[in-house]
Amino acid sequence: MHVAVLVTIGLLTLVIGAPIFLSIMAGTIITFEAYGPPIPSMVIPQRMVDGVNKFSLLAIPLFIFAADIISRGQIGSRLVRLAESFVGHITGGLAIATVLACALFGAMSGIGPAAVVSIGPLVYPALVKQGYSRGFAVGLITTASTLAMLIPPGVAMILYALQTNSSIGAIFLAGLMAGSIFTSVLCCYAYVYARMRGIKPTAKLSWTERWSATKIALWALGLPVFVLGGIYGGAFTPTEAAAFACVYAIIVECIIYRSMPFSDIFRAANSSSATIAVLLILIAAGTALTYYLTLSQVPQQVTALLSGASTYEVLLIINIVFLFSGMFIDPNSAIIVLTPLIFQAALSAGIDPIHLGAIIVANVALGMVSPPFGLNLFIGITTFKVSYREVVMAVLPFIGLMLLVLAIITYIPAVVLWLPGLM
Question: What is the longest distance spanned by two Cα atoms in the chain?
Fold first, then answer.
């Protein structure tokens, strides 16, 4: 009964236009007061403070700040030039270069929309000029940008790890494997599409020209090398790596590339602070909700409800729940609200928590391009000046590819657990 009241209140507040964190808090507080255990209400704000009072949580705002700096500079353009210099001469080369550039950009930013804004305006006109349809170009860029959520240091992966007390390093490695599969599938599709349409590749560059493009992008490539190498080499914790990423991005963009004045750092900080504040409030509200659901033994009830289901059936249910939620709410909200509900049930079904993390992050990445409310759809409308209908039609083939990748990740766990297993 109390869960139905909580959900009803949350949905009603969403319908009237309230922010998600207010919907979560309204449902939590009202049901806690009406149906909760006889403990002081002061415990709710205490739990909210505890939810954001974590050293490891600092990695998220720091990576968001680093992503904002990177998106304002020249790192994106240098990555595009580097990728094109090596694969531009093969069939579908420019489209493949776009995918690789988005993957590399994701390894630096951890946030998908940043790649759309930074790389999209650079490659979209070139793709259309070379013969790719506008729909393919929009769909490719909008979808490939979600690689940032899977490839370390994805913010969604950090959030999942904090929600479940899992190893961030292991989640990163599982995401790297999932992102590699997705990258390969997108590249293959780009090759087949270009071959079927007879799109001519560009001239093959000499090794001297390739080395020149590499030198230009060398400082940009150093960011994921130092960040991930520092984490797995034991030099950094993820939080320290995030702080290093901020300093490194500032030095590269402001001093080495001189692509932005130091005054833009304050603008980036101002822009990032709004995103960070919303996310931290959401995490605090989600912590209160999780606490109430735990007191009410809702996760145990979900586990009991799914006790008769096989592992494959539980995986299917988890995918359906997250795919549906991704159509309507943002990835961070989906992870914060839904993960505590299904986590115990997944463990009881024998699902590895690292494998589960890869599945959930792949689902929320798909949600970024899923109509009606996928965030990347609206960013694509603004970036490429196309209609909502055009961007939705553009991403439909790529949603099919993402569902294929999701099926591989879900039902062949070895492909994402192999690399974490080595650690």
Answer: 74
